[in-house]
Write a structure and sequence with these properties.
Blueprint (H helix, E strand, L loop, with lengths): L2 H16 L5 H13 L12 H7 L7 H18 L6 H19 L27 H16 L3 H39 L7 E5 L6 E7 L3 E8 L9 E5 L2 H6 L4 H9 L4 E5 L5 E5 L3 E2 L2 E2 L2 E5 L12 E3 L5 H12 L11
Antiparallel strand pairs: 1-2, 2-3, 3-4, 5-6, 6-9, 7-8, 9-10
Length: 339
């Protein structure tokens, strides 16, 4: 999730765990700091955009390592505020603010390596978009309200209700995703399309409109389904995924990295200059993907791949928002495909 959401969640957890034991501003401050810390790995440059993508949400998001990090952080905070007797409580607050960061990230589609250092496998449920106001704003408003109200009891109740609502919203997103997934499989099967390799994830900023991606040998099939479509079958558009190129360059290190990280939801094309371009289909929508990389010309045997360059294409904001609002309401209109 975005950094503002992680700060709000961490602050809310800090307030809930510390309760009346310390000033609310202290628990909100250190909970927010702990909620942000795992994302500071974006400041690390691994020397290549593909590696920067894959190494984000790695060790800094490992549940075990974050749990261990909570010990020195809690010690430092309890000493800073001369609350040695609250060390154990500070540990719980900071530990929970730290580990809920990757747990929330697991709900997005990006890929989070929560079991580092034992495995670098990246996991992602994909039931919530990386920015969702309906999740973030109640938490943020509750933390601000808790710091502003005069009575601690009322502040804690406001914060508690916001945490409960946000947790219920995550549960709702998973249930909605499961229902849309089943409906998408039925739509694919009715149209004679494969449903084994299937991705269902929400469109930006909501859990009403869902994006469906299915992969077969030659094509990627993309469609959209709104919960207000009243059971209408998903309509798919088919796009070439460069299957021959993917097979031909299967040993290319960058292709291997992206294939594994994106669970095969990639396409490969070659431009007029001979350079290879690989796209991660999980984030964005055709042809505007968040992650598309120029990985250079085909490699000769033993050749080291050049440093990749990234192209991030986004559709025009105005046209995108108009389409999003229209499609959410159940009107089956084509998405804008241009930049």
């Amino acid at each position: 999730m975005d950094s503002l959401t992680q700060i709000a969640l961490g602050a809310s957890i800090g307030v809930a765990v510390m309760g009346r034991r310390t000033a609310l501003w202290k628990s909100a401050l250190w909970g927010g700091v702990a909620g942000l810390l795992p994302d500071l790995d974006v400041l690390i440059d691994h020397g290549d955009p593909v590696l920067n993508m894959i190494r984000h949400r790695a060790e800094s998001h490992a549940l075990l390592l974050l749990t261990l990090l909570a010990f020195p952080l809690a010690w430092a905070v309890s000493r800073l505020h001369r609350q040695h007797h609250l060390y154990a409580r500070w540990w719980w607050a900071i530990m929970l603010a730290l580990v809920t960061h990757p747990l929330l990230d697991l709900m997005t589609i990006y890929g989070t390596q929560v079991f580092q250092p034992f495995t670098d496998e990246a996991y992602g449920l994909g039931s919530i978009f990386i920015v969702d106001p309906l999740y973030t704003l109640p938490l943020l408003a509750a933390v601000i309200a808790a710091l502003c109200v005069k009575t601690t009891g009322r502040a804690l109740r406001i914060n508690g209700w916001a945490l409960a609502f946000s947790t219920a919203y995550l549960a709702w997103s998973a249930l909605a995703q499961a229902w849309v997934t089943q409906h998408a499989r039925e739509s694919l099967q009715a149209q004679g399309l494969p449903s084994q390799q299937l991705l269902v994830t929400p469109a930006p900023f909501n859990t009403v409109l869902w994006r469906v991606v299915a992969v077969d040998g030659e094509h990627v099939h993309e469609g959209f389904y709104s919960l207000l479509d009243a059971g209408r079958p998903v309509r798919f558009d088919a796009f070439e995924r460069g299957a021959d190129l993917l097979k031909k360059h299967a040993e290319h290190p960058q292709v291997q990295r992206l294939q594994r990280f994106a669970d095969g939801f990639v396409s490969l094309r070659q431009d007029a200059n001979g350079d290879l371009w690989i796209s991660d289909w999980r984030m964005g929508q055709y042809p505007n993907f968040f992650f598309t990389f120029n990985i250079g010309p085909p490699l000769s045997a033993g050749q080291t791949p050049p440093v990749a360059s990234q192209e991030r294409r986004t559709m025009a904001v105005g046209a995108g928002l108009v389409w999003l609002g229209t499609r959410m309401r159940g009107t089956d209109v084509d998405p804008p495909r241009g930049p």
